[in-house]
Amino acid sequence: MIDDIKHYKNRLIYYMRLRSTFFNNYQIIKTCWVVLLFNFIGYLMFAELQQGQDVIRSLGFQSNGNVFNSRHTFMLCILMIYWGWQNFRSARIITHFKSFHFSEFYKPYATRTIVIIPRIFSSLPFLIISYATFKANDGFVSLILLYLTMAIWLYVFLIYRRKIMVFLMAKNFPFRFLLDYIPVKNDGYPVAFIIYKQRWWIIQRFLILALTFALVLAFPIRFSRFIGVCGIVILALSSWMMFFTLLALFEHRYKTPFVFLFFLCFFLFSFFNNNHEIRNLNKEKPDKRMYIDTYINHWLQKKNELEDTVKVCLVACEGGGIRSAYWSNEVLSELNLKVADFNNHILAYSSVSGGTLGTVCYNLAGQCSSNPVQARNIGRDFLKKDFLSPIMGYAMFPDALQRFLPFPIAKFDRAAILEKTWEGSWEGTCLDQPSLLKKGYLENKFTGRDDQGPLLFFNATQIETGKRVLISPVKFGENQFYETTDLLDIINKDIPLSTAVLLSARFPYVTPAGLIVDKDNKKWGNVGDGGYYENLGISTLLEVYTRLRAISDLKQIPIRVTFIFIRNTKDFSESEPLGGMYELMAPIEAYINVWYKGGGYNFNMIKNISLKKDDKILNFALPRFENDIIPLGWSLSRQATDYIDSQVEHVVESELKKK
């Protein structure tokens, strides 16, 4: 009997301790929500987004004689330690100025909880990156062991750091910030006392944030590329986490709702701090562009002098960020190798988003070298460069600050940095003609200046109306292109080629919509990615085809048209009904699937129109698999580019055989 009573008593004590443990841990974790929030954002960026996964799998030091991105891996390791340390310090700051109403039972464990949980938080970055690495590589790699070992060493350091501090102080170590130790207790300290004790640490954090901001602003491309995408993201997450921690600290000190005011400024200032006005060349010129019918007529007449039946190619390049750019360049380069006189038969390109960058890259590379193989290598070298780090650095530091300022600062525009990154990358790739992307859109050979073609139409979307916006090398009438705005007619100025390309590829939230100011210096509206309207550019191509057929019939010039569609997306739709989180996921799933289906619908629609007997349709689709990692951001790993390179010859040969 007595033994039974003791047994039940021990079980009761155990369950009460267990309940107390869960309650006390919940109290700490709830209080440190800001730490968990920024670590969760990091998890999403590295482990869930394809662009993050592609960047993660490109990391490494050396394996089987292949040298990977060792510098970025080294920077990642250093900044993971920094991130873990900031997790720890942020959690300690929060627990110092908060009072906890712990469960009274087993009170000693409650105090130890305050000590242990911040140390556990210090390991979160290593666990996140380890899991992301495991997922990106479809299994265990040696880097994971390195990351976990670093987590253990940081945890051990945090256990013995006070003894280390005492030892260094006994040796007259000169740095006074070691004197900021505050013992842990359940009740909150006076905030003024915490600020005084932590003053050196607070000053250091603000200096690090200011230094990072200055480096990104002064060297937006060089600095961001030096530390890499992962380094930029980690630096931003840890910096903004500490900023909001200190904001909460000062909020308690001065009894002022700083966090609320901060986001109130974000809302109010957004009405007049838009700094995303597109760049232009500030030269108002008479619009000397030909009308589309005049251009097509001249083009057909010249081709008809060389061949009785004019062969015409109309090319549409689907959107999809850097994936689309690389695939479009590869397909066009392969066709140039396999199809005789391929370039001379192309009348027009209609491109969207990343397809625009790939189309431009292919045409500019052809200007740099007449050798098709050399031109392809120029395009590859350009598109393999890191375009993502600079825009991420600007998005997370200068342009993030802009959101809380009452006036626009054009220098903080992250979209302009992406354009300048392209320009600088091209300068380093094509030494013979380094300024091609800096030149005006209308100054380039593919804008109809020599009546030879091809014409490059860049598709974009007006955000306010949903109508199509064209950066067009020729003029067109309202009845020729349905509900379409001629952007160059609106602004009456030429724009840099890089700006024209990005107008077609402004897919928020990485690249913001571009603010358009018209020729009367009034705000006309905002222009976003062409994929909002239609992601394959078929609409523009069909209208060019309609004008082409009308003119060829009128002039009695026989033509044979080949439609070339270059596609890279895959079908994400599922037959099973939505499961959990259906209120949140329904609009997202619907948009993604309709966006994908739109290209397929338009592609099938063009098959059913009354094409002439000899007209052909060629569809060059990048083979995609369920779990492949080929992101649509602005950076591709070696694994992704190698995969695309391995597919292009087979895809092109298979489709050409259908002719």
How would you describe the overall organization of this protein?
- This protein is of the alpha/beta class.
- Helix content is 57%, strand content 9%.
- The chain has helices spanning 2-31, 33-48, 50-57, 70-97, 107-136, 142-170, 191-197, 199-218, 222-254, 258-269, 292-304, 321-338, 354-368, 372-383, 388-396, 398-402, 414-429, 487-491, 497-503, 538-555, 582-608, 638-656; strands at residues 62-63, 66-67, 310-317, 346-352, 455-462, 468-471, 484-486, 514-517, 523-529, 559-567, 616-621.
- Strands 3, 4, 5, 6, 7, 8, 9, 10 and 11 form a nine-stranded mixed β-sheet that branches. A two-stranded antiparallel ribbon has the order 1-2.
- Strand 10, helix 21 (582-608) and strand 11 (616-621) form a beta-alpha-beta unit.
- Helix 4 (70-97) runs antiparallel to helix 5 and helix 11 (292-304) packs across helix 20.
- The mean pLDDT is 87.
